[in-house]
Amino acid sequence: SDVGSQKDRVVTEEEWLEKWEMGNIGFHKEEGHPLLQKYLDVLLNGRNGLRIFFPLCGKAVEMKWLADMGHSVVGVEISEQAVKEFFSEHSLPYCEEPVPEISGAKMFQSTSGNISLYCCSIYDLSSSIVGKFDGVWDRGALVAVNPCDRQRYASLMISLVEKNSSYLLVTVSYDPNKHKGPPFYVPESEIKSLFG
């Protein structure tokens, strides 16, 4: 499977921040993702009160949807603007505090306590900071990660999940020679080698 010219493509944190500043966020969906609704039973697996992780969460509306069902949601996002927009768009009061283990990082938590969003690089997180998760909703994270960082990303994600967790992953399929990404094309064979 040829990934075209994408394997060397790098999108910097500055470029992601600029996308948010310019409102160039076509990746954000105003409605809940139909695949999460379709496979919700797989994610929850009959369990209640789960800790669910949203990598590169942006201002995903599904975070509030799952929190309203009684789950605890933790996200990570580089853009403080995105995090603040999430809380304001859902009229959720929140508090903001520094993350002592990560220089410059902040954690924004709903006053109800069931939504915690870390504003920092995902690679600064570890299970000692955020704990472990029962479920992951990866709707646009793996496909946004620079191809050269995929192994690092997958290793981090594996370190953050409990043994019996569910990991829902959405990818996109297209000819990588015709689009430079992101979203990046991740062949199924690579997903299998990354996550086993």
TrEMBL record:
Entries under Pfam families matching the protein: TPMT
EC number: 2.1.1.67
One Gene Ontology MF term: thiopurine S-methyltransferase activity
UniProtKB keywords: Cytoplasm, Methyltransferase, S-adenosyl-L-methionine, Transferase
GO BP annotation list: methylation
Catalyzed chemical reaction(s): S-adenosyl-L-methionine + a thiopurine = S-adenosyl-L-homocysteine + a thiopurine S-methylether
Gene3D superfamilies referenced in this protein's UniProt entry, alphabetically: Vaccinia Virus protein VP39
Compartments, record wording: Cytoplasm
A single Gene Ontology CC term: cytoplasm
InterPro entries for this protein: SAM-dependent_MTases_sf, Thiopurine_S-MeTrfase, TPMT
Residues reported to bind S-adenosyl-L-methionine: 16-27, 56, 77, 121-122, 139
Matching SUPFAM superfamilies: S-adenosyl-L-methionine-dependent methyltransferases
Main location: cytoplasm
Family, similarity comment: Belongs to the class I-like SAM-binding methyltransferase superfamily. TPMT family.
Protein name: thiopurine S-methyltransferase
Gene for this chain: Tpmt
